[in-house]
Design brief:
52 residues, mainly alpha, 1 helix, extended
C-alpha cells in the first residue's frame, strides 16, 4: 500500500490537530484562538478536550 503524500488527494475528510504542553503554557488559549481563526475562514470545527 502506498502512503499518499501531503500534496496528494486522499479519502479522509478531516484533520486532527493536537495541542500539547505543560500546565499553564497556554494550550487552551491557543486552541481557542485556532478554533476562532478556522471558523472565521469558514472551516467547520469540532472542538473537544480530554485528559490522558
Amino acid at each position: 500500500m502506498k502512503t499518499p503524500g501531503l500534496d496528494q488527494p486522499h479519502e479522509y475528510k478531516g484533520r486532527l490537530i493536537v495541542v500539547e504542553g505543560i500546565d499553564g503554557s497556554g494550550k487552551s488559549t491557543q486552541a481557542a484562538l485556532l478554533h476562532k481563526w478556522l471558523a472565521n475562514w469558514g472551516v467547520p470545527v469540532f472542538f473537544t478536550e480530554w485528559n490522558s
